Amino acid sequence: MFSNPFLLAAGRDPFVELPQLEGVKQFVNNWSPPEFSLPFIVLLFIVLLLTYKKWTKPVIALTLLVVFVVVYFGAMLVDYNYYEILKKADNVPITIMLLGCGIFLWTAFRQAARNDVRLEAGKPLVDEERDDKVLVWPDLVYTELICLVLASAVLVIWAVVLPAPLESPANPAGPPNPSKAPWYFLGLQEMLVYFDPWMAGVILPVMIITGLIAMPYFDTNPKGNGYYTFRERPFAISVWLFGFLILWVVLIVFGVFLRGPNWNFFGPFAYWDANMQVPLTNVMMSDYFWNPKDLLGFGWSYALPKNPFIREISGIVFTAAWVFILPPLLARTVMRKMCMQLGTFRFYVMAFHLVIMAMLPLKMALRWLLTLKYFIYLPEYNLNL
Predict the structure, then answer these.
(1) Which pLDDT band, with edges at 50, 70 and 90, does 14 fall under?
(2) How far is the CA of 274 from the CAs of 68, 179, 278, 383, in angstroms?
(3) How many domains does the chain have?
(4) Fewest C-beta atoms under 10 Å: which of 92, 123, 281, 322?
């Protein structure tokens, strides 16, 4: 498709077919579901961390930005479905968030790359050679005042130009499909696919807040205090960025662009068909434990025990091992040095937050590979995990 401004001005469909791009769009649609796209995003995230000294060079970074802008906005001209998603007033913040995250990420890693190169060469930090300190009053206050005025003007223009995305009055007999939370809660709504509401809506958000509060007490490395660096504190930066970018920003993007009617996944160039039926098979860990023969093709086959705790013994043991045995195992193996530096109490508090955070990508992977719904399924007590 191609957008024709003359047809658009005449009130006609501005899109015409471009068969040359249909194969590309179909390829993107086929590989957009998270079981394919999220591992690729994680791999890209790791590559960016390992090569931050290269891609942060201004020429390379500017090239990447231009390519992203051309593809991101240019796709609106060749596909009506993508255009309908991106033009929504309540999706504008997503575009601002993506561009902002990219620019701020480049700024931080560019400074870190320059400092790390100088530290490896035995030279002082970039900031140590600069004498451009300014006073809070009047320099900083004036700068903040100008930013405040400009930001307010942008918000006023935004509110005038883009209409508020208000819909018809609420009707319990005909809820909107899909029913989506505000964009900043779509990451949380995506977690509801993989966890019970008490876990996704209460425990995980609380763990995010307590983890952010406790982070300064976990990361006691004095290096990098007051200047940008990645080489001197890779673990803290990598874990924080993984939690923020992969487990929050990416999930928001999934919720905005890929979640359609009935909360099904659609490619960015696919039509959101409300009548599309996706067969879902929810299998519990207890099913795999007691009856792997029918599910996996090997092993044994037993009827599920009537006692709920015996029935869910596999999930209970797995969860207990994940939460209570994995941290001590880490303390005695790959994180032994970190445990000695932090002390027992601080390390175990940090490790507890890490294993809870790691449970989300683990649950997502098991959901895609084995259609696993819950580790522990106790509807008798309204307790599922």
Answers:
(1) low
(2) 30, 12, 11, 31
(3) 2
(4) 281
Burial 215-231 (b: 16+ CB within 10 A, else e): eeebbeeeebeeebbbb
Task: Tell the burial category of 274 from Cβ atoms under 10 Å away from its Cβ (0-12, 13-18, 19+).
Answer: exposed
For residues 342 and 203, membership in a common domain is answered with: no
Domain of residue 73 covers 2-164+182-263
- Provide the pLDDT for residue 17: 59
Asked if residue 170 belongs to a domain, the reply is: no
Q: What would the pLDDT profile of 304-334 be if each residue is shown by its tens digit?
A: 899 999 999 999 999 999 999 999 999 999 9
DSSP string, 221-265: --TTTTS--STT-HHHHHHHHIIIIIIIIHHHHIIIIIB-GGG-B
Convert the pLDDT of each residue in 284-300 to its tens digit.
999 999 988 888 888 88
Q: Which of 263, 297, 331 is the last residue of a domain?
A: 263
My answer on whether 258 and 335 are in the same domain is: no
Distance CA 186, CA 93 (A): 13
The pTM score is: 0.87
